[in-house]
Amino acid sequence: MNCDEFNEYCKSLPVTTYVVQWGGSHVWKVGGKVFAIGGWDNGKYPGVTFKVSEIAYECLKDEPGLRPAPYLASRGMKWIQNYGTPVLSVDDLKAYLAESHRIVSLGLTKKKQKKLGLNGQ
């Protein structure tokens, strides 16, 4: 997945906002909370970072091409970074990004979820 594909997919998820921050990272948020971070370095494979469930974190953290996300995972958060080869397939990466969006949106207050029309609120 290249930068344009990453941004286009994240944009397609409900109620998202986009900002470039942290040294040029493409940061996607739902309700003001980060759910995906993409960084491209001179055409090399990106580091795409996303939030996962505890079970997914345990399954993914030691897989080739994946690692606990720098900074976030060191603070006990369940975030994975797809940083190298072999990479997740585009379909798998999209599924993890959608799940990250869902997990983060469920962490918003019920009032905010309702205001944004998320999760059937």
What does the overall shape look like?
globular
Helix content: 25-40%
Beta-strand share of residues: 25-35%
The CATH top-level class label: Alpha Beta
Task: Output the helix-strand order.
Answer: HEEEEHEEHH
Strand order of the largest sheet: 1-2-3-4-6-5
If you compute it from the alpha carbons, what radius of gyration comes out, rounded to the nearest whole angstrom? 14 Å
Question: What is the number of beta strands?
Answer: 6
Going by helix content, strand content and strand pairing, the class is: alpha+beta
- CA-CA gap between termini: 32 Å
Mean pLDDT: 91
The total number of structural domains is 1
Give the second-level CATH assignment, the architecture: Alpha-Beta Complex
| Uncertain runs | none
Largest sheet: 6 strands, antiparallel
**According to CATH, what is the topology?**
Aspartate Aminotransferase, domain 1
How many helices does DSSP assign? Answer: 4
Explain the overall architecture.
The chain has helices at residues 3-12, 54-60, 90-106, 110-116; strands at residues 16-21, 25-30, 33-39, 47-51, 66-68, 79-82. The chain is α+β, with helices and mostly antiparallel strands. The protein has a single domain (3-109), classed as Aspartate Aminotransferase, domain 1. Strands 1-2-3-4-6-5 form a 6-stranded antiparallel beta sheet. The N and C termini lie far apart (32 Å).
Per-chain topology:
Layout lengths: L2 H10 L3 E6 L3 E6 L2 E7 L7 E5 L2 H7 L5 E3 L10 E4 L7 H17 L3 H7 L5
Antiparallel strand pairs: 1-2, 2-3, 3-4, 4-6, 5-6
